[in-house]
# Entry
Amino acid sequence: IHKFWGSQPILLNSNNELSELNSPIIQDSIAIREQPFTLSSSFEWSELDLTLDCEIQELYELLCENYVEDDDHMFRFAYSKQFLIWALKPPGWLSEFHCGVRVKTSHKLVAFISAVPAQIFVKGKLKQMVEINFLCVHEKLRNKRVAPVLIREITRRVNLKGIFQAVFTSGAKLPNRPVAVCRYWHRSLNPKKLIEVEFSYLTRNMTLQRALKLYKLPEKPITPGLRKFKLSDSKAVCDGLNLYLSRFELCPKFTETDISHWLTPHEGIIYSWVVQPTPSEPITDMISFYSIPSSVIRHPKHKHLYTAYLFYYFTTRTLFQDLLYDALILAKSNNFDVFNALDIMENKSVLEDLKFGMGDGNLQYFFYNWCCENIATDNVGLVLQ
Ligand code: YNC
Ligand code: MG
# Structure
């Protein structure tokens, strides 16, 4: 029944048998096809050049109009152009991995998939993998088996670079067996707007006045010594974060260059703070979140919902709950409407106290060509965009 996924080196939900644990499902020595996979005759492959603003614009429009929506079709991700550059051009990026499909005659971009290289620790083993993201097929081309061709083609291109494992997430249920099943939690920052766009609801016991009071936050962060991350913090933060993440069964391993890329603050993209009690002392803690607006589909007043997503953090001195509270304050003061966090890492232990509410729907983590037993959510230390 699953014609595509049934042919791939992955674990299926329907099959309980695990092959050798914590190892590849097929070996690296497979023959790699030299020619691109065949698209139907009216389409052509097109490597996007994300150094060109016009091509970023095309990708931005494809995703804005056709990328992930919630189940009720009220909101659709509206990743900004600058965010896409940040997410798709980390250290080691390759333009072959920005894989587009165009209509031959009009050159219109109608489908896309991407990969970025990443070093991933899984149950103590370090593997060079890619992270797959932004799989998108134009609405008019759905259910025509374009997605399997995109996945096969990105796999071929990744294999040609000597990489044979991938990690990806999906909100939609797939036939693939997830390695972890996580959930988003939401913390209201702007309850009035969230109610207006029907992201949240009032109840008999919860009036707008009560909601405003419940979710009110101070204007300034509380932790002494909290300041914005700067480039020169990269080494200390890289060491601190890698050490912190090593406690989780699934986590990335960062280089100093990765940290500079992923954590240097950019308005509207990525917000990062460190705690350095005094300038002569070392950095003790770090927290970060990124920005993905969503389009509010067909709303008379509000066009976008501004959402902050908890990214990486580590603590050695500050209580995690206090650090995340400061992140909420900073997100609010940067005009975000809602703050999202998964129940991964240490998050679950503080979400309720910080007035997060559990979302509906899961975010599942998957491997490609890696056999591994399930990982508990609080053992996941990997965040994808
Ligand atoms: C999905 N999201 O099961 P079977 S997340 C993976 N991820 O195959 P068709 C998916 N597979 O069951 P459509 C998938 N959605 O018959 C569907 N599938 O074996 C499978 N939505 O293909 C599905 N973006 O072309 C089925 O489906 C086959 O036209 C059906 O296209 C799907 O980025 C899609 O949600 C998702 O744009 C492109 O619905 C389309 O519906 C769409 O007939 C809105 O496909 C946007 C959206 C997904 C966001 C993401 C992660 C993607 C991971 C892909 C897998 C990577 C594997 C690793 C490769 C590298 C390996 C190395 C080394
Ligand atoms: Mg299709």
User: Anything to note?
Assistant: The chain has nine helices and 14 strands. The chain has two domains: 5-166, 181-379.
